[in-house]
Amino acid sequence: MRLILKHWFLSTLLAVSILCYLSVLISPTAFWPVVFLSYAIPGVLVFNVIILIVLAFKRSRSLIIPLIALVLGIPFILISFSYRGKLSAKGSEISVLSFNAKLFRKHNSYSSFSFDMIDWVARDTSQIKCIQEYCSSTWTRLDVTQQVKAQGYYAHTFKSKIKNSIHDLGLATFSRYNIINSGIIWEDSTLNAAIFSDIDLGKDTIRVYNVHLASMGLNLSEFRWKNNYARKIKTLISKLKNGAAKRSSQIDILVTHTLSSPHPYIICGDFNETPYSYNYFRLKSNFYNTFEKAGNGFGFSSNSVLFFLRIDHQFYSSGITPINYVVDRSMGISDHFPTRGNYAIE
Fold this sequence. Notes:
Elements: H1 2-6, H2 8-22, H3 34-39, H4 41-57, H5 64-72, H6 74-80, E1 82-83, E2 92-100, H7 115-123, E3 128-136, H8 144-149, E4 154-159, E5 168-175, E6 178-187, E7 193-200, E8 205-212, H9 229-259, E9 265-270, H10 278-286, E10 288-289, H11 290-294, E11 296-297, E12 312-316, E13 320-327, E14 339-345
Parallel strand pairs: 2-3, 8-9
Antiparallel strand pairs: 1-11, 2-14, 3-5, 4-5, 6-7, 7-8, 9-12, 10-12, 13-14
Helix pairs in contact: 2-4, 2-5, 4-5, 9-10
């Protein structure tokens, strides 16, 4: 106690660290400020590491305080970095691609289409492909659905209810294997939705969920004003708060739907959730995360100024074993990098 009173700054840092860690246990719909506490977790961990190193060089006994903070933060350290290598498992092996294609628009723009991205998706050889922010049209060059089908795939496409769009916008799941059943889990008037496809692998059947949760609402161009700082902060808080609450409700529907799944399942998509949130831990408590079990590195999937975000995920249920997981940085046109998971069906 004397040590804590003497080093009030370190004690305050420890208290803040604990509050941030506890934020993942509280739903943003119940107490919205926890959203910002959870976003602070990576910074808290890094800051504690720096303080620990400085105090270690000084040979100060007070290093015990940031050390306690880091020990308590071990669960968050473990989900931040993974080193697994390629695992081995028995059973039928399938490859799954998940990709937010940004409506197949060019890099840093929505003004024109990227035919390079369309061709990349069509040529990709993954046995199952889950595309978010999907776009297709009746014009041959923009008819992505037919281009992928021509490569030997079955398709389950979902068209959103966005008004005044001359193209079909939404989600798409493609499979080398027959899709014997499909449906919509939830949808709204935006690009966000969740669909499922039951895929017959021959000896086995699996369910694949393709999910695009509500956006984080971070349009960086809105925060480049030269004044109105109070308005900027208010807008940012409102968007982050409302987005987290909406994603929480969407995850509730998803979890409930998986409880009645007659098959083992894989969940892919753009979740717009970092690993340091109540919503992510809700997913993690119900499903296994492929990156954590079979990934390497940090798994950052954002291709933007906020490059350090991991918001695209793949999860799976019992009855499925992950073999490998990578973030594919060869496709850098979209603002998301594709994720790839290899699985064995037990």
